[in-house]
């Protein structure tokens, strides 16, 4: 059986939590073959690359792929500015003789944690308390991209969902738990109402169609 390989380049290790979302998007849009995705962990290199263009080139050399996802949080920058930043870095990157993969930008309006705030069950499971009953005040989905700090909110929700006492809460590995929320989400369709997610899905659809990945078996 053939497979589609992709590599994710991002700023931090927490962004590896995008892998389940990207897998879902590829499968939901017609990729039926095996999907092999990897987050490009460049932290342990003797000299980790600093610039985005160098990170892109190094990631592709170390983790060859057909499809390259480059993640940048928009934060306070316009979407187009971040997308142009990625495209300029891609044009400046060198790939050591390896064929340049198809590139898709992953640019949440704030942070990727904003895409994880809609699934109460996944948050409870990530907190290690799937049967918890304490009410969780999740934001309205339409407001998720407007939140000033979705990462902080997700962390607070995980702590609340744990239902532990104050002393035990202090020892919770909250960051690790937050990384796992996406793994427990089975269906990301509700995010299609968010502009950045919808844009990402359209770019993935275009890449799948242009490269006939939906006809690969």
Descriptive report:
This protein is of the alpha/beta class and 217 residues long. The protein has 2 domains: 3-109 and 194-215, Rossmann fold (3-Layer(aba) Sandwich), CATH 3.40.50.2300; 113-184, no CATH class. 38% of the residues lie in helices and 11% in strands. It contains 8 helices and 4 strands. A 4-stranded parallel beta sheet has the order 2-1-3-4, with helices on both faces. Helix 3 (79-92) links the parallel strand 3 and strand 4. Helix 2 (52-62) packs across helix 3 (79-92) and helix 5 (150-162) crosses helix 7. The N and C termini lie close together (6 Å). The mean pLDDT is 93.
Write the layout of secondary structure elements.
Elements lengths: L2 E7 L9 H10 L5 E6 L12 H11 L4 E5 L7 H14 L9 E5 L13 H7 L23 H13 L3 H4 L4 H7 L14 H16 L7
What's the quick description here?
The protein is α/β, with parallel strands linked by helices. Helix content is about 40%, strand content about 10%.
Protein structure class: alpha/beta
CATH class of the largest domain: Alpha Beta
CATH architecture of the largest domain: 3-Layer(aba) Sandwich
Low-confidence stretches: none
Radius of gyration, taken over Cα atoms and rounded to an integer in Å: 18 Å
């Amino acid at each position: 059986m053939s497979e589609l390989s992709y590599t994710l380049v991002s700023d931090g290790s927490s962004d590896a939590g995008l892998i389940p979302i990207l897998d879902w998007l590829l499968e939901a849009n017609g990729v039926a073959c095996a999907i092999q995705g990897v987050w490009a962990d460049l932290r342990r290199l003797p000299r980790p690359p600093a610039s985005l263009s160098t990170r892109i080139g190094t990631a592709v050399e170390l983790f060859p792929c057909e499809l390259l996802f480059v993640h940048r949080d928009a934060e306070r920058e316009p979407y187009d500015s971040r997308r142009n930043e990625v495209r300029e870095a891609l044009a400046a990157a060198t790939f050591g003789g390896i064929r340049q993969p198809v590139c898709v930008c992953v640019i949440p309006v704030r942070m990727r944690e904003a895409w994880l705030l809609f699934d109460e069950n996944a948050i409870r499971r990530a907190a290690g308390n799937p049967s918890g009953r304490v009410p969780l005040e999740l934001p309205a989905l339409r407001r998720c991209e407007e939140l000033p700090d979705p990462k902080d909110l997700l962390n607070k929700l995980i702590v609340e969902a744990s239902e532990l006492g104050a002393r035990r809460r202090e020892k919770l590995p909250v960051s690790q738990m937050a990384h796992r929320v996406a793994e427990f989400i089975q269906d990301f369709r509700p995010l299609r109402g968010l502009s950045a997610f919808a844009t990402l899905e359209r770019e993935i659809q275009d890449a799948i169609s242009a490269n006939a990945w939906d006809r690969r078996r």
